[in-house]
Amino acid sequence: MDRIAEVSMTRMSEFNTQNVANLAGAFASMQHATPGLFTKLAKRASCMASSFRPQELAQLLWSFSVMYHSADPLLYSLESIYNNWIKKMPNTWTPMRMLWTVLLKVGNLINQCLKLEYPHLGLSVGTEFENRVAKACKIKIFNEKTTSLLQKEVGRLLVSTGFDWEQEYSVDGYTLDVVIHHKKVGLEIYGPSHFSRNT
Known about the structure:
Blueprint: H1 2-10, H2 17-29, H3 37-47, H4 54-66, H5 72-88, H6 95-117, H7 127-137, H8 149-161, E1 166-171, E2 174-180, E3 185-190, E4 193-197
Antiparallel strand pairs: 1-2, 2-3, 3-4
């Protein structure tokens, strides 16, 4: 693994978002820390922060938290991008504004998970970002509780597991579709698929 890390660090400038996320995920899954690798990954990720797909970004942040390594360069870049998006939002509702609001809420949820699970690492973003997202989350359209057919199906499957779970759980103005408290698991279900992480 050390040799892979060594070669990766020399070719880091050639890595795309998927390469960065997968490499970080592989090392985090094996709990293998190589000096300097995660520092270089954070710097490379910060250069292309706006290009990450949501799952790549989630995997990358998960990897940094598992390895107890700061992702500050990436988090600062993301905060800057989000602040710029918020400033560019029109004053009237548009489909694009709704999309950005939903994305910011997911970013806020990741931020809250980092604050709760790894407060000693200082991985969460600043309060200005949190305040802006909280303002966006207070809009009625995004706080309506609705249950899709997929959510109902996930609920039926959870009942069969015997777990104690709660539907439509509110966290800092954001509603998670399903929460299993004693396992520290939250599910957010989108369309035909869902993403989950033990946070």
